[in-house]
Amino acid sequence: MMKFYSALTPFTFFSTLLLLAGCGVIKPPTEQITQSPEAIEESTNKRLGDDEILSRISALPGQTLEDSTCGLFLWLRRDDAPLIFFQRSNDPSATMILDGVSQSLPRISATELIGFNFFENQTFENNAFKLSVKTKAEAVRSIRQGIKIETGSISMTTNNGWSAALPVAGVVGCK
């Protein structure tokens, strides 16, 4: 037992020295980097691809919730995971940036309630686009931790006949 403590003491001593030495190496940031409103707008209006559908979709900026509301957030399933779809619990319309403009798409049908006025299957439509949003919420649902949307898709059809299905994942979060 004594050999264990005698071996532990040098280890503890050197660990403490390394910890103290490391504290002196980390320096606080001296300059805060901020983006201009133009740079933020440019990054959020960047098209998500080159094809007929993705070229018409841009990433949404961060969305905020008012107190006592919930939101459905859907991100495109790819490495950069841009937010492309947002819906508030107190509004049946969805928000997307299509053709460079933030658009409110009215919901025309919904089935299979998840909760908080959100559904696993919803259809939205305006004069240029029709969206079919299919999601699968996790079985265990928690208001405090949010409801994870494990898988889903947004099938989009343009008024000139182009269509594509985009894989998404997301969450229903509340404030």
What does this structure look like?
This protein has 175 residues and is α+β, with helices and mostly antiparallel strands. Helix content is 18%, strand content 43%. The protein has 2 helices and 10 strands, in the order ααββββββββββ. Strands 1, 2, 3, 4, 5, 6, 7, 8, 9 and 10 form a 10-stranded antiparallel beta sheet that branches. The radius of gyration is 24 Å and the shape is globular. It starts with a helix and ends with a strand. About 23% of the residues have low confidence.
Give the C-alpha Rg. Answer: 24 Å
Structural class assignment? alpha+beta
Strand residue percentage: 35-45%
Helix content: 10-25%
The average pLDDT is: 77
User: What is the number of beta strands?
Assistant: 10
Distance between the termini: 55 Å
| Count, helices | 2
Instruction: Write down the overall geometry.
Output: globular
Low-pLDDT runs of 5+ residues are: 4-44
Largest β sheet strand count, sense and barrel closure: 10 strands, antiparallel
**What are the secondary-structure elements, in order, as H or E?**
HHEEEEEEEEEE
